[in-house]
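Contributing: when you submit paired examples, paste them exactly as shown. First protein:
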Amino acid sequence: MIAGPKNLITDVPGLRVGNAQDDTLKSGTTVVLADKPFTASVHVMGGAPGARETDLLAPDKSVAAVDALVLSGGSAYGLDACSGVVDGLRAAGRGFQVGGATIPLVPGAILFDLLNGGDKDWTDNPYRALGRQAFNTATETFSLGTAGAGTGAMSSMLKGGLGSASLVLPDGSTVGALVAANPVGAVTTPGDKYFYAAPFELNAEFGGFGPDPASGLGLSLESRKVVAMSQRANTTIAIIATDANLTKAECQRVAVAAHDGIGRATVPAHTPMDGDLVFALTTGDKPAGDLSLIGHAASLCLARAIARAIYEATPHPDDLLPCWRTLNA
């Protein structure tokens, strides 16, 4: 397996990603779109998830395909970003047809970034407009780090962000990951230099420092986030994509396997205070492949994407936590 040409989820042909953010708000939204509806499912392993329209992604539910997936900051307020994407899809004539009605189907998930130092004193919920803006700007190339749903994200020790990575499999199919990383846990080992995901890094995509030579890691759960906010405010939300033709049930198995990537990149992971959630989608444009290999590739991509999210974060006024690049310049 090798990294895709862009090392982004949009290495899966037909996918586009749109980001929208408000730097004063310190929050934003990210949407994944395709040229046509796609099959998708979801798996949740965190103890505090926030989501919309995820029940219809269960393998036994009748909906066969959805029109977009949304990741957003804003906690429960951020779920309204899905409404902005629905507005854009409806204007484009996209959606599930029921008689004369067109109903865009847009599942989404949120992370908690309400106490990150941004101005949250709004009168009207800003996330619907951010969702529409993200829809309108979706392209095959997009920013990582302090962008979209990762704008206000924080790990336990460093500023979080939006990350992505991809792999091309031996059969020619592609697997990609997109993540907004805002976990309870740390993404770097003590000292803030080495990434837990370092064994899976390709082409120095998050600095090329390799694994931490120390042993006995993970025994301390120090958290600058808790000190800065007096509480934990968290969640890692992600989307896995492939062009290998999968059923909805197989997409769910890929989502389950992809959660291993969170555990490989974040210590601890899947805590009661995280809402860790992974969507998995397929465009179905390539023949069905080896499901075990696709799930393994998904976990590797997600681990790398989480590290890239922290590596690519950039400093902004009133940040509560430092950036990796600031500490390791």
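Second protein:
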Amino acid sequence: MKKQEPRISFYNQISTNKWKSFFLILIVFMVFIVLGAVIGLALGPDYFTLIMIAAIIISIIYVWVGYYYSADIALASVNAKPADRRLHKGFYDSVEGLTLASGMPMPKLYVMDSSEINAFASGRDPKNAVICVTSGALERLDKQELEGVLGHELSHVANYDIRFMTLVAVLVGMIAIVSEIFLRSLWFSSGNRDDDSKGNAIFMVIGIILAILAPIVVQLVQLAVSRKREYMADASAVKFIRSPTGLIGALKKIEKEHVPDQEKQKINKAVAPLFISDPFKRKIQGLFSTHPPIEKRIEILERM
């Protein structure tokens, strides 16, 4: 007789994944500090200051564009159109019901032309949020399943996931920029070094190793944060709707469907992490995945 798995509280699931996300952010921040300290010891504080100023300026521009225009960029990239209240009445009714029950403001609704079942949310905060669903989701999901998907997307909005992931992207981007500038600067540095420079050779070697490995490590951490936020949105959706049944049904349909190559080509890989499931349906999953395995998500939801 198979041993029954213990039940999972969605409150515990939300709390656990929230703490794991912050812990992963802390790892990225520590990598940034260590990389900066080693480069400073290798090249001197003045040179390091110049690198940091350049990285901060580039990151601020990136943040400003990404933070304020992330929703517009995402919608434009998939050619989404505003939802029509008359044609997409079930879509509107479901979102209005969920927002009224949760006390959230009504997001702007969009539909993208795609036969696959998928959806995403974007926007810097609940007042500026958008939810986009595929035409396939509206056609092939029943009312309960659609509400499960919409509850998941509203959870991303309520949890400020776009803001959180923007912060992660900034830290990861700064590490990549600092590493790139440091490595490129070595090509232009003079081969003649004084005694002090020779004494810092050990830090130079460590700096080179860190500059190569740090962007890879923090990118893996960024992907891990993305997967944790998906688990948290699943649990938050159960909290919104008070039932995991609809989301389980939707994920099972997503798991079974085959996405044609022409459908995959409609989506920019940069916005793929926003969707409720990986729109490219990559077979290899693990450390390099933006989403956790669907079967694992279903397993956890079935225990709630």
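If you have annotations for the second protein, write them as plain sentences, like these:
Residues 10-78+159-302 form one domain.
The chain is about 65% helix and 5% strand.
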